[in-house]
Amino acid sequence: MLRWLVGSSLKFRFIVVAAASALMFFGVQQLQHTSIDVFPEFAPPRVEIQTPAIGLSASEVESLVTIPLEQTLNGVPGLDVIRSKSLEQLSSIEMIFEPGTDLLTARQLVSERIASISSTLPTWASPPFIIQPLSATSRVLKIGLVPEDPEIDTMDLSMTAYWKIRARLLRVPGVANVPIWGERLDMLQVQVDPNHLRANGVTMENVMTTTADALESGLFQFSEGHIIGRGGWIEQGDSRMPIRRSSNRSSRWRISPRSRSSTIETRRCVSTMWRNWSVIISR
Predict the structure, then answer these.
(1) Are 255 and 215 in contact (CB under 8 A)?
(2) What span, in angstroms and rounded, lies between the C-alpha atoms of 40 and 137?
(3) Tens digit of pLDDT for each residue in 141-178?
């Protein structure tokens, strides 16, 4: 077989040279339109969904957030494999689609499924969001922050990482996402004294409801402060002027006087001032 092949090539050498030249010509033409990358994309389309849930353990994240999302995302057209990972205060779901699936179409289908279940998730869980498209090389750099000054706590490091380091890394061309793990957000907390609550006949439910109503929007859907609503409008002739409430949540100092002067009606119909048994701190 090899002898016949060599002999035929020598006998029809002009045809072989013409065919080789034609292949080289078409190869050079195609090379001009071929996308070149240092790391060619060889992995199938992939969509990752993350849902932060502050205050939940890994088992609670699994049962309350991850499993409902998996049940909703199952059956998306083109889905090949779905994987999930439930960590403390975070749910991560990875969806791998069949080769050839359009990534933008897959992300659109996933976002539609997420929109249909977001309202049924726990109120203290943030809305699920889709991570920006990543290449097959995924994350290329991991940075750890360790304070040299013992007075710098985890919250200070989190704020530095979020507002300074993350913002600058996102400005680097080609960077799609900079996630932060183990962060502690700076937030206002109302800390109460149980002895004062017991002495005044006030329950924790009263405290939580009044705290939610003191903000422009709260975590409790049954409270008045959960909805940022309009106050209607005033009609004057042919014009209509909308009425809206002003925000009181812009800073710690603007919220504190109003919150501390809020009253809670106890079972004895006694109005108790917050300043007697609570303190508002920034945590």
Answers:
(1) yes
(2) 9
(3) 788 888 888 888 888 888 888 888 988 988 888 787 78
* Spatial separation of the C-alpha atoms in residues 205 and 220, rounded to whole Å: 11
Q: What are the two backbone dihedrals, phi and then psi, of residue 191, each rounded to the nearest 5 degrees?
A: -105, 125
Neighbours of 282 (CB within 10 A): 10
Q: Which residues pair with 86 in a beta bridge?
A: 91
Tokens of 86: 């439930």
Domains in the chain with CATH codes:
46-130 (3.30.70.1430), 143-186 (no CATH), 188-282 (3.30.2090)
Q: Which pTM value belongs to this model? A: 0.50
Q: Under a CB-based contact definition with an 8 Å cutoff, are residues 82 and 93 in contact?
A: yes
Radius of gyration of the chain (CA): 30
CA angle 20, 26, 28 (to 5 degrees): 100
Collapsing DSSP to helix, strand or coil, 233 comes out as strand
Q: What is the rounded CA–CA span in Å between residue 78 and residue 56? A: 32
Burial of 218 (0-12, 13-18, 19+ CB in 10 A): buried
Strands, E assignment, the chain:
46-52, 79-87, 90-97, 129-130, 188-192, 230-236, 239-244, 263-265, 271-273, 278-282
> What's CA 17's distance to the chain center, in Å?
60
Residue 216, token pair as written in the block: 């422009």
Residue 97 has a CB neighbour count (10 Å cut-off) of 24
Q: Which pLDDT band holds residue 268 (cuts at 50, 70, 90)?
A: very low
Terminal CA-to-CA distance of the chain, rounded, Å?
Answer: 81
Strand partners, 5: none
